[in-house]
Amino acid sequence: MKPITSAAFFLLLSFCIPQEAHKAVVYLKHIEMPHYPEVARAAHLDGIVIVKLTVGVDGFVVNSEPLTAESPKFLVDATLQLVKKWRFGCVSCPPAQSYETTIKFIYKLDGEPSIQDNTSLLMELPDEITITARPRECDHCPQSSRPKKPSKN
Questions:
Q1: For 24-139, which CATH superfamily applies?
Q2: How confident is the model over 4-46, as pLDDT tens digits?
Q3: pTM for this structure?
Q4: In terms of DSSP bridges, do strands 120-124 and 87-91 run parallel, antiparallel, or are they unpaired?
């Protein structure tokens, strides 16, 4: 028995589902992994960035608009630059038309300051991405103002 290709599967699926049940499903075809912006980490900034994306028929983002005004500019700018590198697809979208989707990015700082980039991701695609990192340790501050590291005994 020959395996069903993804195109054949979607075609078969479209005939099996009643017309009123067809709902557009946006998915990611290509993603560049998010990182916590270094400037925001160093400045101990966190926040939520919600972006509305207009995706062209080729799957690339043709317009991105932040929907959150209270987020730090570093986070908004990094998010807008990031999503422009992604490529999307859509099942049940009208052919040869652009479509819109909204994604929520949550930037959180957690734990003791660290020099290393230890970004972790929780990706609940295509709706939400949580990016967590430790705050950046000040590498140019006097020793007395740096947080004390526990001694090993």
A1: TonB (3.30.2420.10)
A2: 444 444 444 444 444 445 688 999 999 999 999 999 999 999 9
A3: 0.75
A4: unpaired
